[in-house]
Amino acid sequence: MSDAEQGVNTRRGRDETAEERADRMWTELIQEIRVAQMGVQILFGFLLTVVFTPMYATLSDTDQTIYIVTVVLGACATGALIGPVSLHRLVSGRRIKPQAVRWASRLTMLGLLLLLATTSASLLLILRVATHDDFVPYLVAGVVCWYLLCWFGLPLWTRYRHTTR
């Protein structure tokens, strides 16, 4: 006889209030953001130095455009991934943590998408400079697919597969 047939509580999840859940989700979100922030800040810092190297002047107009777009994407990713910290600081103590967690989560997802674009554009630029082969766009597309699988595909599949309905 199953637990449900015996009347045993088979409820999954935590027994927590909305505020406790928001506190837990905020802590988890901040830990996730720390990982993403580190990556975007290192990449963005590297990108900022490229324009000051002698090689920058020798880049084609296309490569310079890719560079500029990449730097702007990196700046936007940095802003989106730091945004939740500012959001928390400005609304702290206002008793709206559940709403703040939702908005911070949205900013984080936007930051991850911008980080994906920044990383992809950086890879495109680096490979175009390192090699002038026609396979570069295909290689970058393959890496983008890998990122999409790791960052979104697998998590969404896991969510679908293991979430109770």
List keywords for this structure.
single chain, 165 residues, mainly alpha
The radius of gyration over CA amounts to 21 Å
Number of helices: 4
Instruction: State the low-pLDDT regions, or none.
Output: 7-11
Oligomer: single chain
Helix content: over 70%
Q: Using DSSP, what is the number of strands? A: 0
Q: What is the CA–CA distance across the termini?
A: 22 Å
Q: Describe the sheet with the most strands.
A: none
Structural class: mainly alpha
Strand content: under 5%
Molecular shape: flat
Helix and strand succession? HHHH
Average pLDDT: 90
Description:
The chain has 165 residues and is mainly alpha-helical. The protein contains 4 helices and no strands. Mean pLDDT is 90; it is low at 7-11.
Can you give me a brief rundown of this structure?
The chain is mainly alpha-helical and 165 residues long. It has helices at residues 18-50, 61-91, 97-130, 136-162.
